[in-house]
Amino acid sequence: FLMDTEGIDAAHARTKDDASVLVMTVLLSSYFIYNSMGVPRRSDLEKMSYFSKLATSIAVSQRKTVSQDDMEEDDSFELKNHFPDFLWLLRDVILTPTDKDGKEITPKEYLLTNILKRSKKFKETANDEISRAIITVFPTIDCKSIPPPSVDPKVMRSVEENQDRLNPEFNLQVEKLVEFLFQHVQGKRGPFPGKTVTGPILADMAHQYLKAINDPDALPCINDTWQAAIEIRCKKEKELLLTQ
């Protein structure tokens, strides 16, 4: 099941919409892909401010919510059990990432050492908070890059109609990316060890999450939503059996 959502800061989107889409996507995903253009800079984290609010926008259980300021090791471990793996996909990359000595490094190394690192300032900055949130709540973090499909503007205006004129390196990197995803993407984990979310249960959970996100007085609760979805599914199966 592949879900493509509206990006952060999309045209005509409201701030609340961006936050709600991000929360919903994280709750339903087993693998979360955030894509951006070119090699990122530290300042690009400013566009990802919603990530720093994830911990306070989702409850693991009704008895416990996680405060961003009071997050402890046990809290982050608990969130990591429920959050998807994270991949930052860099699109249309022309430059090769390098370290401070000019040595070529992988996109993942660049991400961890240049973008998600903590600044040297005494007081934590907004970007520090965002990078800390990403590192804290996602169980794994990776980064991949793909070059532009072409440097020809005519091809770029209609990529679908110019498949035979695409950059061979672009096609190669896309194939490698697809292979990587097939190797690493797993089924959506349930909130308890050994449990995997099925399609019908995921649909029921999506309905419950949506109601909570649209309720200003509620937080989406992972454990309670799972339990409610199981009960709904059991009720439907029971009704089906009784009609046969």
Which tags fit this structure?
244 residues; 9 helices; mainly alpha; two-stranded antiparallel sheet; 10% strand; three-stranded parallel β-sheet
List the topology elements:
Layout lengths: L14 H14 L2 E7 L16 H4 L1 E3 L2 E2 L7 H8 L4 E7 L15 H9 L10 H12 L3 E5 L7 H5 L10 H17 L14 H15 L8 H22 L1
Parallel strand pairs: 1-4, 4-5
Antiparallel strand pairs: 2-3
Helix pairs in contact: 1-8, 8-9
What does this protein structure show overall?
With 244 residues, this protein is mainly alpha-helical. Helix content is 43%, strand content 10%. It is built from 9 helices and 5 strands. The chain has helices at residues 15-28, 54-57, 73-80, 107-115, 126-137, 153-157, 168-184, 199-213, 222-243, and strands at 31-37, 59-61, 64-65, 85-91, 141-145. The strands form 2 sheets. It has a 3-stranded parallel beta sheet. It has a two-stranded antiparallel sheet with strand order 2-3. Helix 1 packs antiparallel against helix 8 and helix 8 crosses helix 9 (222-243). It is globular. The model has no long low-confidence stretch (mean pLDDT 85).
